[in-house]
């Protein structure tokens, strides 16, 4: 049976990746969250080391040079990256490591880790996506428009993913992702050492 693996959850900004990840983590002990690093400014409710590792551009650049990221990308004017050592350690321990990253980062990960499981989280529609971004009240109109334009571009990459899940309601979204996890564990290619 497949034990540890990498689960990549991505989709447009505002689709609810963070909310879905949090619900999965609260529900399952076998899923571990990889905290990303970023150069973006910390929002008032965020905690360094819990929501993100907040780094200066110089610190981030140093980590790139040292090969410390599975992937990194510049998104909405800021850098984001996934620390490599934590992810690989947890997978080797048999855990499912979930990455909550943007499309650009997911495609980078896929180049080096094609065996990971890739899920594209979709909004019910683009107007609902805009409503969710506006409801956060953390971005100005220009940034919201940038995020909406990026979302339209990101949707064109959906065929690079293994699964697509519409996030209309968190509980049903979590159930769908749990079904994907169980299906992945049962794939014939992931069953090892079975003797009849």
Brief description of this entry?
With 196 residues, this protein is α/β, with parallel strands linked by helices. Helix content is 42%, strand content 21%.
List the helices and strands and how they pair.
Elements: E1 5-10, H1 17-27, E2 31-33, E3 37-38, E4 53-54, H2 57-65, E5 69-75, E6 78-83, H3 84-92, E7 96-100, H4 103-112, E8 117-122, H5 126-136, H6 141-155, E9 163-166, H7 170-186
Helix pairs in contact: 1-7, 5-6
- Any idea of the CATH class? Alpha Beta
Tally the helices. Answer: 7
Radius of gyration over C-alpha positions, nearest whole angstrom: 17 Å
Full CATH superfamily name? P-loop containing nucleotide triphosphate hydrolases
Order of helices and strands: EHEEEHEEHEHEHHEH
Side-by-side strand order of the widest sheet: 2-7-1-8-9
What's the overall average pLDDT, rounded? 87
Return the structural class.
alpha/beta
Envelope shape: globular
Your description of this structure?
Helices cover 42% and strands 21% of the residues. It is an alpha/beta fold and 196 residues long. It has one domain (5-190): P-loop containing nucleotide triphosphate hydrolases (Rossmann fold), CATH 3.40.50.300. It has a five-stranded parallel sheet with strand order 2-7-1-8-9, sandwiched between helices. The chain has a four-stranded mixed sheet with strand order 4-3-6-5. Strand 5 (69-75) and strand 6 form a beta hairpin. It is globular, with a radius of gyration of 17 Å.
């Amino acid at each position: 049976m497949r034990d540890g693996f990498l689960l990549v959850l991505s989709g447009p900004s505002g689709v609810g990746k963070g909310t879905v990840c949090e619900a999965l983590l609260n529900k399952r002990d076998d899923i571990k969250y990889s905290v990303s690093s970023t150069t973006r400014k910390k929002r008032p409710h965020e905690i360094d080391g819990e929501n993100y590792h907040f780094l200066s551009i110089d610190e981030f650049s140093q980590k790139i040079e040292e090969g410390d990221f599975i992937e990194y990308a510049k998104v909405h004017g800021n850098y984001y990256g996934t620390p490599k050592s934590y992810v690989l350690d947890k997978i080797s321990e048999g855990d499912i490591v979930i990455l909550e990253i943007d499309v650009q980062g997911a495609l980078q990960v896929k180049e080096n880790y094609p065996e990971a499981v890739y899920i594209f989280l979709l909004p019910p529609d683009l107007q609902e996506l805009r409503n969710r971004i506006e409801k956060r009240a953390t971005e100005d109109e220009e940034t919201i428009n940038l995020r909406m334009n990026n979302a339209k571009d990101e949707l064109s990459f959906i065929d690079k993913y293994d699964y697509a899940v519409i996030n209309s309601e968190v509980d049903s979204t979590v159930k769908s992702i749990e079904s994907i996890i169980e299906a992945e564990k049962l794939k014939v290619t992931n069953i090892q050492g079975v003797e009849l």
